Amino acid sequence: MKKAATAKNSATKDTDGASPSKLIDGRIKELGDWRGEMLGRIRGLIREADPDVVEEWKWRGVPVWEHDGIICTGETYKAVVKMTFARGAALEDPAGLFNASLDGNLRRAIDLREGETINEKALKALIRAAVELNGSKAKKPGKKRTV
Fold this sequence. Notes:
The chain is α+β, with helices and mostly antiparallel strands.
């Protein structure tokens, strides 16, 4: 499997000069409630599942975890913390974690609500499967162009 091209804490800087990892730290702290705790727990599980994960900060404030492409995002709303898997529709989900965005052709999401527990083993397996799927995409040679 191809390693991520950038360091674990991406060198990409936000306009304030803060690294994506620092911005994610700030989001977790700023939430200061169950959503911050949940986002922090999810982040920890992603890092356990893929120690080579790259953290990014995109779309004006969305934590994103990548390895050979986007694995998932960590969006926070009033009533849920949403993990959206970029290529979730192509992943096996034997534990039935996906419970949102089920109609799309590409993405799938997991909405986590206050007081819910995470099936950590199943989530880490899903993250590893997403990394493997991204790696298989990255290895495919591009179409040769004739001029």
